[in-house]
Design goal:
The structure holds 2 protein chains of 2 kinds.
Chain A (H helix, E strand, L loop, with lengths): L1 H29 L7 H9 L6 H35 L11 H15 L5 H24 L7 H25 L4 H8 L8 H4 L3 H13 L1 H8 L2 H6 L4 H23 L5 H13 L3 H25 L8 H19 L3
Helix pairs in contact in A: 1-3, 1-14, 2-3, 3-9, 3-12, 3-13, 3-14, 4-5, 4-6, 4-12, 5-6, 5-12, 9-12, 9-14, 10-14, 13-14
Chain B lengths: L1 H31 L7 H8 L8 H33 L11 H16 L8 H19 L7 H25 L2 H12 L7 H28 L3 H6 L4 H23 L5 H12 L4 H25 L8 H19 L5
Helix pairs in contact in B: 1-3, 1-12, 3-8, 3-10, 3-11, 3-12, 4-5, 4-6, 4-10, 5-6, 5-10, 8-10, 8-12, 11-12, 12-13
Classes of the chains: A mainly alpha, B mainly alpha.
Chain lengths: 334, 337
C-alpha cells in the first residue's frame, strides 16, 4: 500500500516537472523585450512568415536561445548529479571543480595561440580543458588517508579555478580587443548564439545524456559502497570511467556553447533528491528536466529584471546558487 | 624554550638584513629596468642630484610610484593574510580565497561605475574597505553556528567569493566599453599606471594597519594558545579578535582599492615568513610585510619587463606562483584535516 502511494507520488512529480518545463519553455519563447502572444508564437513555429517581425524574433532569436538553455540546463544538472555520485560529495559540481574555468582557459589559449575559429575546435579543446581540470581536482581532493573530503575538493577546485582564471585574464589583457567579446561569454550567456553553435555539440551532449540515463542502476550499486559493488560483481573502475567521460562531455560541451554557468549542477541534484529520494534511475532523468526548467526560468528572469538590458545568466545562477551553497555548507558539513 | 628563543634570536639577526638587502635589490632593479636601462650608478647620480634632469620623467613619474605602490600593496596583503591565518587557524585562509578581496573589488567597482566623477577619488579606498568589511562580516555571520569553525568559514567564504565575482562581472558588463577594459585590467591585479598620488593615499592605511597589527602582536601569540587559556590570562579574546579582523579587512580592502585583485600574496608570504622564523608573532608581522612587498614588486617587475612591450598584470604572476603553492599546501596537509 505504502509502495503504491510512493509510486503514485513519483509519477506525479514527473508529470508536474514536465508541465513546468513546458510552461517555462513557452515563457522563454514569449517573454522578453517584446512580449509575444502564445498564439503568435505557435503560429511562428508552425507557419513561419518571413515578413512578420514577431515571427522572426521567435524563430531566429528566442527559439534558439530557449533550446540552448534547455540543453545546457539539462547537461549541467546531470553532470552535477553524476559528480556527486562519483565523489560522494554534496558540493561536487562542474563549476566548483574548476571545470568551467579549465575549459574556458583552453578555449582562450586555442583562440590566441592556435587561431581556432570553428566551434568544433572550441568544443574539442573545451573537452580537453574540462578533463584536465577535473582530473587535477579529483586527484588532489582524493589524495590522502581520508579519501575525498568536501573541504579538500572545494579548496582544490578554488585553487585550480583561480589558476586558470588568472591565466585567462593574462591572455586577455595581452589581447585587449578580445576582452569585450570573451567577457560576456565568460560570465555565461545563452543569448546571441545561433543554431550552428548548438548543432556540432549536440551529438556529444545527447549521447552523454543517454549514457547517463542508462547508468542509473549501476550508479545505485556504486553508491551502496565500493566493496558491496565489487561483491555484486560490478567492475567499479569502468563505471567510474564512464561517469567521468559523461561529465566531461556534458560539462565541457555546455561551456563550449554557453560559457561559464555556475551552481546549476550543484543545486538541481539536491532539489531532485529531496523530491524523489536517492534512486539514481529516477534522479538522473528528473535532474535533466528540472535543470532545463530552472535555467529557462533564470534566463527569462535575466531578460526581465533590468530591461532593456540583460543580466548575464551566469551571474543569475551565481546569485541563486550562493545561498544554496551556503545552506549545504552549513547543514550537511557540520 | 630558552634554547629555542636564542636560536630564534640568532636567526632574526641575519634574516632582517638579508630580507632588507633583497628588498633594496628589487627596488633598484625596478627603477633601473624597463624600456630604457638606467644603471644603478646613474640612479645614484640622479638621487644625489648630479644629473641634468634627463631621468625626471622615467624615474619620478613612471617607475618610482609604481615600485612604491607595489611595496605598499604587497605589505598590506601579506599582513592581512597573516592575520586571517592566525584568527581562522587555517593555513589555507587568505583574503582572496575566502572572498574578502572580491568584496573589496565590488566596493571599488560600485565607486568606479556609479560615483566616478561625482565623489572625489580619495574616497575610493573607503568604498573598497567597506566592501571587504561587509563580505567579511557576512562570511563570519553565516558560518556562525554555535561558534565558527575554520572549515565552515573557508567553505562559506568560497561560496561568497563566487557571488562577489558574479557581482563584479555584472557591473563590468554594464559599464561603458572603455571602463570595461580598465576595470578588467584592474580586477586582475595591476599596478599599471600608478602615480604618486596613489602612493600618498594608500600610505596612511598601510602604515596605520601594519603598526597596529604589530602593537596587537603580543596578544595574538596568547590568543593562539586557545580562547580559554587566553581569557584566563586576562586577554579580552572577542575584542582582540574583532580588532584584528577589522585590521585585516582594512589592509586587504585598501590594497584592493589601488591594485585590484593581486592574488595569493596573503597566502604565500605568511607561509614563507613562518618557515624563516620559528614562532614569534611580533617579528612575523614585519617579516611577512617585507616578503609580501618583495613579492609584489618582483612580480610587477617581471610582468612589465619579461614580455616587453606588453605590460601584463602582476596578478597573473602572483597567481602563477601562488596557485601551485596552494595546491602543494593542500597536498602536504592531505593527512590532516
Amino acid at each position: 500500500m505504502k509502495t503504491k502511494s510512493r509510486v503514485k507520488k513519483r509519477i506525479l512529480t514527473f508529470i508536474v516537472a514536465v508541465i513546468l518545463l513546458i510552461l517555462s519553455f513557452f515563457a522563454s519563447l514569449t517573454l522578453g523585450q517584446t512580449n509575444i502572444s502564445i498564439s503568435t508564437t505557435l503560429h511562428a513555429i508552425l507557419h513561419f512568415d518571413p515578413n512578420n517581425t514577431e515571427h522572426i524574433i521567435v524563430v531566429t532569436s528566442r527559439l534558439t536561445r530557449t533550446l540552448i538553455a534547455c540543453v545546457i540546463g539539462a547537461s549541467l544538472a546531470i553532470a552535477g548529479a553524476m559528480m556527486q555520485a562519483l565523489t560522494r560529495n554534496p558540493l561536487a559540481s562542474p563549476s566548483i571543480f574548476g571545470i568551467n574555468a579549465g575549459a574556458i582557459f583552453f578555449i582562450v589559449v586555442g583562440i590566441t595561440f592556435f587561431s581556432m575559429e570553428s566551434l568544433t575546435q572550441y568544443m574539442w579543446i573545451a573537452f580537453l580543458g574540462a578533463g584536465v581540470a577535473a582530473i587535477c581536482v579529483y586527484v588532489l581532493g582524493s589524495s590522502g588517508s581520508q579519501g575525498v573530503s568536501p573541504l579538500k575538493i572545494v579548496l582544490s577546485g578554488a585553487a585550480i579555478s583561480a589558476l586558470f582564471m588568472s591565466f585567462t585574464q593574462g591572455l586577455l589583457v595581452i589581447d585587449e580587443q578580445r576582452i569585450q567579446t570573451v567577457l560576456f561569454w565568460m560570465t555565461g550567456s545563452v543569448a546571441g548564439r545561433s543554431m550552428d553553435m548548438l548543432l556540432p555539440v549536440l551529438p556529444f551532449i545527447a549521447s552523454g545524456i543517454v549514457i547517463a540515463l542508462l547508468m542509473g542502476h549501476s550508479i545505485n550499486i556504486l553508491l551502496s559502497g565500493e566493496d558491496v559493488a565489487k561483491g555484486l560483481g560490478q567492475q567499479t573502475i569502468w563505471i567510474k570511467i564512464g561517469i567521468a567521460i559523461v561529465v566531461v562531455f556534458l560539462a565541457g560541451g555546455s561551456v563550449a556553447i554557453g560559457g561559464s554557468i555556475g551552481f546549476l549542477g550543484l543545486i538541481v541534484p539536491h532539489m531532485v533528491r529531496g523530491m524523489v529520494g536517492p534512486d539514481y534511475r529516477l534522479v538522473l532523468p528528473l535532474c535533466g528536466i528540472t535543470g532545463a526548467c530552472l535555467l529557462l526560468l533564470a534566463d527569462v528572469a535575466a531578460r526581465l529584471i533590468i530591461m532593456p538590458q540583460e543580466v548575464p545568466i551566469g551571474v543569475m545562477t551565481a546569485f541563486i546558487g550562493t545561498p544554496f551553497f551556503i545552506y549545504i555548507a552549513r547543514r550537511r558539513l557540520s | 624554550m630558552d634554547a629555542a628563543q636564542t636560536k630564534n634570536g640568532r636567526t632574526l639577526l641575519y634574516i632582517y638584513p638579508v630580507l632588507i638587502l633583497i628588498f633594496i635589490g628589487v627596488v633598484i632593479l625596478s627603477l633601473s629596468m624597463g624600456a630604457e636601462w638606467i644603471s644603478p650608478f646613474e640612479l645614484w647620480r640622479y638621487i644625489t642630484g648630479q644629473t641634468a634632469g634627463e631621468y625626471d620623467f622615467t624615474i619620478s613619474m613612471l617607475r618610482l610610484p609604481r615600485v612604491l605602490l607595489a611595496i605598499l600593496v604587497g605589505g598590506c596583503l601579506a599582513v592581512a593574510g597573516l592575520i586571517l591565518q592566525s584568527i581562522i587557524r587555517n593555513p589555507l585562509a587568505s583574503p582572496d580565497i575566502i572572498g574578502v578581496t572580491a568584496g573589496g573589488s565590488v566596493g571599488a567597482m560600485v565607486f568606479l561605475v556609479l560615483f566616478m566623477g561625482t565623489i572625489n577619488i580619495i574616497w575610493l579606498p573607503l568604498f573598497a574597505i567597506s566592501g571587504a568589511a561587509i563580505v567579511m562580516f557576512l562570511i563570519y555571520g553565516l558560518s556562525w553556528k554555535n561558534g565558527v569553525t575554520p572549515n565552515r568559514l573557508v567553505l562559506i567564504g568560497i561560496g561568497i567569493a563566487a557571488a562577489m565575482q558574479g557581482l563584479v562581472s555584472f557591473m563590468i558588463v554594464f559599464s561603458d566599453t572603455n571602463v570595461t577594459t580598465k576595470a578588467y585590467i584592474w580586477m586582475t591585479g595591476s599596478i599599471y599606471g600608478a602615480v604618486m598620488k596613489d602612493v600618498y593615499q594608500l600610505l596612511p592605511w598601510a602604515v596605520i594597519g601594519i603598526l597596529m597589527t604589530i602593537m596587537l602582536a603580543r596578544t595574538v601569540s596568547t590568543l593562539e594558545l586557545g580562547d580559554e587559556l587566553a581569557t584566563s590570562l586576562g586577554v579580552r579574546v572577542q575584542l582582540i579578535r574583532f580588532s584584528l579582523l577589522v585590521l585585516s579587512v582594512m589592509l586587504a580592502g585598501s590594497a584592493v582599492a589601488f591594485a585590484g585583485g593581486i592574488g595569493f600574496i596573503g597566502l604565500i608570504a605568511p607561509h614563507i615568513a613562518k618557515k624563516l622564523i620559528s614562532y614569534s608573532f611580533v617579528h612575523l608581522v614585519p617579516i611577512t610585510a617585507l616578503i609580501g612587498a618583495i613579492m609584489v614588486a618582483a612580480s610587477d617587475l617581471v610582468a612589465r619587463t619579461a614580455f616587453y612591450p606588453l605590460d601584463i598584470p602582476a596578478g597573473v604572476f602572483t597567481a602563477a606562483i601562488g596557485a601551485p603553492f596552494f595546491i602543494y599546501l593542500l597536498y602536504r596537509n592531505r593527512y590532516h584535516n
